[in-house]
Amino acid sequence: MPKTSKIYLDNAATTKIDKKVFEAMEPYLQEDFGNASSLHYFGEKAHEAISKARNQVADFLGCSALEVFFTGSATESDNLAIFGVVRSAKKKGIVKPHIITCSIEHPAVLEPIKHLEKNGEIEATYLPVDKEGIINIHELAENIKENTVLVSIMYANNEIGTIEPIAHIAQLIGNLRNAQSKNLNFKQSQNANFQNSKQYPIFHCDAVQAANYLDCNVEKLGVDLLTLSAHKIYGPKGVGVLYKKNGIDIEPFVLGGHQERGLRAGTENVPAIVGMGAAVEQIKHEKRQAASLLKLRDKLLEGILKTIPHTHLNGSRKNRLPNNVNISFEGAEGESILMALNEKGVAVSTGSACSSGNLTPSHVLMALGIGVERAHSAIRFTLGKYNTEKEIDYVLKVLPDIIYRLRKISGRFS
Ligand code: PLP
User: Fold this and answer.
1) Which of 232, 104, 110 is nearest to 159 (CA)?
2) Does ligand 1 come within 6 angstroms of the Cβ of 351?
3) Does residue 184 surpass a pLDDT of 70?
4) Which atom belonging to ligand 1 lies closest to the Cα atom of 158?
5) Dist. CA 24–CA 69, nearest whole Å
6) Which residue's alpha carbon is nearest to atom 5 within ligand 1?
7) Reported pTM
């Protein structure tokens, strides 16, 4: 591997824009720069481009174009889902709504829920996960109460790649919803304000990390709300999607213009939205991506576990994204491994990108019950479609020596 070339193994943090995506976006940064709300030719061009992207996303999700809403990021989509459901529920007379989520969610889900809980506006339940990072469906069922308005569970985790049983959760919620609606009919007759109780609990799923590899057909999944981010799927940064099933009520929280049918005000980021459309289109054409990545992932994963002693895979071996390897190297600090790999031209992460520079151990790894030391010695390698076998061979060549040196310094296993 020549010294100057760089190996990018941090695709869960962000991905390189696909050339076809970039080409689709380019005209909307230059000659077709119009505001989609304008009534003249330039506005029409922008409006058409957004419509096309909306159709591409709808096609990818298996929903109607009217159920696709563009936002400024997946963080915004997650926030819109949470604040939007809570505000709508309150409007309907639910004084203290209850939300169920899980302890390993991304901060884009956890922080708005914690914020609402701290303000006394909601009650929240944070479901634990097992040692592989998977929630227990029975525990979820036991925690659903009469005032539960939202269940928010991610499709796949950004740090350990664990895949959650979304379709099973949806099935359970659907069954409970039907049963609950029958029970609530009596109460509804007493409280005329409590309409649409049948839609609760609403099921939101953050599918940001799953979108490249797993089926995101919303009907098959059975979700009511779903979040996507373009920059994790070889598209541009600064654009997200919230799928909102027809008939599900949520209140907007960015107010201003009439854009996105009143659910998200603000002049549309036309080139980025075009990029989102082109990015999901590309996923459809790259169905074989997962199979070839799986081979590379397993080569890296097994290579490390075999050649470097005292290493542990974090998360599930089986229910795992095909691009994620998260390994703890006992006796070596994650930050030091990252820096040493960086010097060798290899880019990895110690946890989620958002927590880099933060020395508190990852909430995801801690939720697995692996302890602080193992959490601090974890490295996340996330592969992408541009990685090659040669690159994996190079990492497997340089890594043992790095770990050996760091363990020598720490005095462990030397
Ligand atoms: N949800 C998950 C699971 C993520 O991995 C990320 C980004 O790391 C986000 C949400 C936030 O995405 P964005 O950068 O588009 O705000």
Assistant:
1) 104
2) no
3) no
4) 5
5) 20
6) 158
7) 0.94
CB of 240 within 6 A of ligand 1: the answer is: yes
Q: Which CATH number fits domain 19-284: 2.60.40.3140, 1.10.150.910, 3.40.220.10, 3.40.640.10?
A: 3.40.640.10
Q: Which CATH class name applies to 7-16+287-410?
A: alpha beta
pLDDT tens digits, 303-330? 999 999 999 999 999 999 999 999 999 9
- The pLDDT tens digits for 331-349 are 999 999 999 999 999 999 9
Q: 154 in ligand 1 pocket by Cβ < 6 Å?
A: yes
Query: Ligand 1 pocket, 75 CB below 6 A?
Result: yes
**Where are the domain boundaries for CATH 3.40.640.10 in the chain?**
19-284
Mutation probe of ligand 1 site: the residue of 78, 162, 208 with most atoms within 8 A of C-beta: 208
Q: What tokens appear for 334 in the block?
A: 């994650």
Range(s) within the chain of domains with CATH label 3.90.1150.10:
7-16+287-410
Nearest Cα neighbor of 74 from 353, 385, 362, 373 is 353
Ligand 1: distance of its center to the CA of 87 in Å? 23
- CA–CA separation, 9 and 355 (whole Å): 17
For ligand 1, atom 8, the nearest C-alpha belongs to 13
Cα(first)–Cα(last) distance of the chain, in Å?
28
| Residues whose CB falls within 8 Å of the CB of residue 68, separated by 6 or more in sequence, listed in order | 54, 57, 58, 61, 241, 243
Ligand 1: atom nearest CA of 353 is 8
Q: Dihedral angle at the C-alpha atoms of 397, 319, 322, 225, nearest 10 degrees?
A: -140
Whether residue 205 lies in the annotated active site? no
User: DSSP label at 162?
Assistant: B
Q: Quick one: pLDDT at residue 191?
A: 46
**Inter-CA distances, 115 with 39, 110, 123, Å:** 41, 9, 11
| Interval between CA 261 and ligand 1 midpoint (Å) | 24
Residues in the chain, total? 414
- Number of helices followed by number of strands (H, E) in the chain: 13, 12
- What is the CA angle 251-256-260, rounded to 5? 60
Query: What is the pLDDT confidence band of residue 387, given thresholds at 50, 70 and 90?
Result: very high
Q: Is the CB of 349 under 6 A from ligand 1?
A: no
